[in-house]
Amino acid sequence: MSKQPRTALLVIDIQDGFLEPTFNIWGPSRSNPDFEKNAASLITSYRDLVAKSGSATTHKIIHVRHASKSSTSPLRPSAPGFAFQPFATPRDGELVITKNVNSAFIGTDLEKVLRVHFGGETGMLFIIGLSTDHCVSTSTRMAGNLGVCDAADGGQGEVVLVGDATAAWAKGVGGEFLDAETLHRAHIQSLQNEFATIRRTEDVRKSWEEWMVDS
């Protein structure tokens, strides 16, 4: 039986505020209609992996939520949109980290949490959530730059962005928009190799299922 790496699943900003149809800052259309299905399946599968391991020592799920400082944002703490979407609602015992900016590492203890979890050994950090070009991209870049899954002896861990378990909105100025799918793909590709490994939901779930069989 091969030793499983220590892993963490970072679930970023899957909150009700992103479902707000009248808040036009998100954009007129969204990429990846399979986002919800893929993200939900990964959360379910990872919880099975945590349960199979018997504790959060080897595998740890971390939920991040955005607490906007804007008085009009649907993600402000006093708004209904601050709540997690039902399929991504944390369970008892799962860590919740609240941020105020794009990066999940700024103004939070996420870096410390991950370094303690990986215990100075190489690990794997899986990232899913919203939105591709804002909080997901920023957090992925910082995870790679900080080397949060690297070992104390310099061994390199792996940041894995599950590209089809995130989504982006069309962006533009003056009515000229870059369509959501193009924006989504461009940001995923810009993160490939330098900051993260890009994988698909089906492949990641298969890996986790194999680990469960081996454990």
CATH architecture descriptor name: 3-Layer(aba) Sandwich
Count of alpha/pi helices: 5
Q: Which stretches are poorly predicted, pLDDT < 50 over at least 5 residues? A: none
Write down the CATH class: Alpha Beta
What is the terminal separation in angstroms? 7 Å
The profile of the biggest β sheet is: 6 strands, parallel
CATH fold-type name: Rossmann fold
Side by side, the strands of the main sheet go 3-2-1-4-5-8
Q: What is the average per-residue confidence, as pLDDT, rounded to a whole number?
A: 93
| Count of distinct strands | 8
Cα Rg? 17 Å
Domain count: the total is 1
Strand content: 15-25%
Q: From N to C, what is the helix and strand string?
A: EHEEHEHEEEHEH
Structural class based on helices, strands and sheet pairing: alpha/beta
CATH superfamily: Isochorismatase-like
Which geometry do the CA atoms define? globular
Keywords: Hydrolase
Domain Isochorismatase-like: 7-203
Family: Belongs to the isochorismatase family.
Pfam family, one: Isochorismatase
Fold blueprint:
Blueprint: E1 6-12, H1 35-53, E2 59-66, E3 95-99, H2 110-118, E4 123-130, H3 132-146, E5 158-167, E6 171-173, E7 176-178, H4 180-191, E8 197-199, H5 201-214
Parallel strand pairs: 1-2, 1-4, 2-3, 4-5, 5-8
Antiparallel strand pairs: 6-7
Helix pairs in contact: 1-5, 3-4
Overview of this structure, please?
- Pfam families: Isochorismatase.
- Belongs to the isochorismatase family.
- InterPro entries: Isochorismatase-like_dom, Isochorismatase-like_hydrls, Isochorismatase-like_sf.
- This is Putative isochorismatase family protein.
- It comes from Lachnellula occidentalis.
- By secondary structure, the chain is an alpha/beta fold.
- The protein has a single domain, classed as Rossmann fold, CATH 3.40.50.
- It contains five helices and eight strands.
- The protein has helices at 35-53, 110-118, 132-146, 180-191, 201-214, and strands at residues 6-12, 59-66, 95-99, 123-130, 158-167, 171-173, 176-178, 197-199.
- The strands form two sheets. The chain has a six-stranded parallel β-sheet with strand order 3-2-1-4-5-8, sandwiched between helices.
- Strand 1, helix 1 (35-53) and strand 2 (59-66) form a beta-alpha-beta unit.
- Helix 1 (35-53) runs parallel beside helix 5 and helix 3 (132-146) runs parallel beside helix 4.
- The longest helix has 19 residues, at 35-53.
- The model has no long low-confidence stretch (mean pLDDT 93).
